[in-house]
């Protein structure tokens, strides 16, 4: 049997080309699946905390110490799963009178509509206790992200309900 080298090279390249055409969709599927799974796991780590905070129900109860009624939270189970874990919350910077403190408050809404000045509820504000003082001053309503360990406050009326401990603040 005589094999022509040009014909042999053509058939090998044709076979490789045909194999790659069949293999390419498989590679695309594997790559896309890996990308999708990676983005889903990243999304799970960056849950929309405002949506979870919004599922919190508040019950009006008498506080005997102050002899006044206050709203006490009833946290949903899905939010309780994040207690003690590191989370990120992005919102509007709300300035405090305590300039030297390592405390930051952010709101889901701009200052004119926030819990303190507007008509929003207590589920729309978060306090962050920063590990270190920010390197710059933030402007009112500047959109910032605070990252820290979530603590849920059920009964201390002198504190906000959603607290981020060991927190850091940055602009996204």
Q: What does the average pLDDT come to?
A: 79
CATH fold label of the largest domain: OB fold (Dihydrolipoamide Acetyltransferase, E2P)
The radius of gyration over CA amounts to 27 Å
What form results from the Cα inertia axes? globular
For this structure, what is the CATH homologous superfamily of the largest domain?
A: Nucleic acid-binding proteins
Name of the level-1 CATH class of the largest domain = Mainly Beta
Named at the architecture level, the CATH assignment of the largest domain is: Beta Barrel
Order of helices and strands: HHEEHEEEEE
Number-wise, the strands total: 7
Could you say which structural class the secondary elements and strand pairing correspond to?
alpha+beta
- How many helices does DSSP assign? 3
Largest sheet: 5 strands, mixed, barrel
Termini Cα gap: 71 Å
What can you see in these coordinates?
This protein is of the alpha+beta class and 172 residues long. The chain folds into 2 domains: 1-44; 49-170, Nucleic acid-binding proteins (OB fold (Dihydrolipoamide Acetyltransferase, E2P)), CATH 2.40.50. The chain is built from 3 helices and 7 strands. It has helices spanning 5-45, 49-54, 77-80; strands at 57-63, 68-74, 86-94, 103-107, 125-130, 143-152, 162-170. The strands form 2 sheets. It has a 5-stranded mixed beta barrel with strand order 3-4-5-7-6. The chain has a two-stranded antiparallel sheet with strand order 1-2. A hairpin with an 8-residue loop joins strand 3 (86-94) and strand 4. The radius of gyration is 27 Å and the shape is globular.
């Amino acid at each position: 049997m005589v094999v022509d080298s040009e014909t042999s090279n053509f058939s090998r390249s044709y076979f490789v080309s045909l194999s790659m055409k069949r293999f390419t969709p498989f590679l695309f599927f594997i790559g896309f699946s890996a990308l999708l799974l990676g983005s889903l796991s990243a999304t799970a780590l960056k849950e929309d905390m405002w949506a979870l905070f919004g599922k919190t129900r508040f019950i009006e109860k008498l506080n005997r110490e102050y002899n006044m009624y206050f709203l006490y939270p009833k946290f949903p189970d899905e939010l309780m799963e994040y207690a003690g874990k590191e989370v990120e919350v992005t919102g509007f910077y709300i300035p405090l009178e305590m300039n030297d403190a390592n405390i930051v408050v952010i709101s889901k809404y701009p200052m004119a509509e926030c819990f303190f000045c507007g008509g929003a509820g207590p589920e729309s504000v978060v306090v962050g206790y920063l590990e270190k003082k920010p390197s710059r001053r933030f402007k009112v309503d500047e959109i910032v992200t605070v990252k820290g360990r979530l603590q849920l406050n059920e009964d201390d009326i002198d504190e906000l309900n959603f607290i981020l401990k060991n927190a850091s603040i940055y602009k996204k």
